[in-house]
Amino acid sequence: MQIKGGKTLGKYFGTDGVRGLANEKLTPELAFKLGLACGRALKEKTEIQTMIIGRDTRRSGPMLGSALAAGFCSAGIDVLDAGVLSTPAVAYLARVTEGAGGAVISASHNPAPDNGIKFFGHQGYKLDDAMEGLIEKYLELAPEEFPRPVGAGVGSLKPMNDGAGRYLSYLKGAIDCELKGLRIVADCANGAASDLGPAALRQAGAQVISINDLPDGMNINDGCGSTHLEGLKKAVVYYQADLGLAFDGDADRLLAVDGAGQEVNGDKIIVILGLFLQEQGVLGGRAVVTVMSNLGLKKAFEQAGITVSETKVGDRYVLERMLEEDALLGGEQSGHVILRDAATTGDGVLTALRLLAAVKKTGKTLAQLAAQMEQYPQVLVNVPVACKEGWDTNPAIREAVRQAEEALAGSGRLLLRPSGTEQLIRVMAEGPDQTILERLAEELAQVIRREQG
User: Fold this and answer.
1) Which of 60, 74, 108, 334 is catalytic?
2) 141, 88, 124, 108: which is closest to 14 by C-alpha?
């Protein structure tokens, strides 16, 4: 059994930046102060002089983006407003723009009323815990305690009109084959991939049928995208497509659907890419995943001689381990896939191109490639709680875990962890018998509900 505490969360920062209900918890006032505090931290600890701001398609994005930009400018940081742009595109632009970092206004796969702000440093990596801690420290200061430059010291605000074009040009070199002959359905989640995703696939030669690509500010992730695959499955079958691709709101993750409408999750995508790269002799014999990854992934890689390292849930922790071990491939079951030869964060569009290249170059269908991994039953229950503190030392919860583990009799595993972005405790059970797993997970969930409110 594994009880995972995950990242020690700050007052403001979760596992993926600052999140909250826009204009209630995540207010323009907080966004302004985040810009002010982050700007001060960047000036003290880095050489960054400019922040590139991108956002997904939520209605609250321009409001929060304007406030964040004002905070940066007030701290003496110049701002380039890239408009609607995916998270990985902003990370890429920060990496290739001299003296620049990046900020993304997005709540990823969450509903439209939510929003969030996350930051990237000048090398395109998310800010580390120490820098986030410093920003949190400055967020506690009174406004008059911040240094305020004047005159030419005030930051400028300019549009960045070529951001999407530069990112698409970079993606041209992501694969070394044409995708001509592949018919793809792309579910853009009414988010940041609505233009970028289909454009990148078409420039690579694929025939693309694009759905959920008309964002109106409120329909992002609404019954579509990587968290709602039902519509994509039907569309793939209806259009007799080779496969389907599903992005999330900020396009940093990807899930897929094979030609028969069957889901191919992040674990299977990682296995497909890993085995393909291993066969080509460029993987390096190792991959990094999280504790949530399916046992079938580990077995498939083990049989191919690929060493698997596990981390806490969160793509930032996957990347940290990848850098430590010089691994080129890592990711999460949810569809965050990091291809370190080409990107510094999860990139749904890049992953889609690499996945399609594997299909094209092997001459196999996505279903055939996905069959390289046996999927073990895995049950996940998200338990809403009033408090996420103290659950891991609660005697009643620990006893319930002991009993569930005893019932599994060594044939499976349990994993409990708090969500880093939502008021939830997640219960995962894995093993050979779906019925037993469902019963044990629900019994554990009932105890957690009772004990944690």
Assistant:
1) 108
2) 108
Residues facing 54 on adjacent strands: 83, 104
By CB atoms closer than 10 A (0-12, 13-18, 19+), residue 411 is exposed
Judging by beta carbons within 10 Å of its beta carbon (0-12, 13-18, 19+), is residue 218 exposed, middle or buried? middle
Task: Give every CB contact of residue 292 below 8 A, 6+ residues apart in sequence.
Answer: 313, 332, 333, 334, 415, 428
Task: For residues 98 and 81, give the distance between their C-alpha atoms in angstroms, rounded to a whole number.
Answer: 16
- Count, residues in the chain: 453
Residue 215 pLDDT > 60, yes or no?
yes
Alpha carbon distance 70, 285 (integer Å): 47
Q: What pTM was computed for the model?
A: 0.89
3-state secondary structure of 208: strand
Tell me: the pLDDT tens digits for 3-48? 444 444 578 998 789 999 999 999 999 999 999 999 999 999 999 9
How big, in percent rounded to 5, are the helix, strand and coil portions of the chain?
40, 20, 40
- Name beta bridge partners: 380: 428
Q: Which of 166, 193, 163, 157 is nearest to 82 (CA)?
A: 163
For the residues 106-121, what does the mean pLDDT come to?
Answer: 97
108 is catalytic: yes
